[in-house]
Design a protein that fits this description.
The protein is α+β, with helices and mostly antiparallel strands. Helix content is 16%, strand content 28%. A four-stranded antiparallel β-sheet has the order 2-3-4-5. Strands 1-6-7 form a three-stranded antiparallel β-sheet, with no helix packed on it.
């Protein structure tokens, strides 16, 4: 397939027997602050705190909440609402951005 022409690749893609995905990217109207975001196995990732053009600011649950900056293309809308492909710990590793240290420290 590496040497296939573009029209051959397109034809091969149309013949793919796998069922179509029910997930789709989330629109701005569907994603509002307060929306719960879940991951794999419906594990709660957190709550959307702010919606930006290219990412969502999601606050994790817990005694000390952590902010995750999740790129919009990573969030899909499924039958049970918005979700990402990953567990809460994977989400933390992928999307947590620690605050930069103050220059005087």
């Amino acid at each position: 397939m590496a040497d296939a022409l573009p029209h051959q690749l397109a034809a091969a893609h149309r013949l793919d027997p796998s069922p179509p995905s029910t997930a789709r990217h989330v629109s701005n109207d569907e994603m509002t602050p307060g929306t719960r975001l879940v991951g794999r196995a419906k594990a709660v990732i957190g709550t959307v705190d702010a919606v930006f053009v290219d990412y969502l600011l999601v606050r994790t649950p817990g005694l000390i909440p952590v902010d995750l900056y999740i790129p919009r293309p990573e969030v899909e809308m499924g039958p049970d609402g918005p979700h990402v492909d990953g567990s809460p710990s994977e989400a933390y590793r992928r999307w947590h951005r620690p605050l930069k240290r103050a220059p005087h420290e």
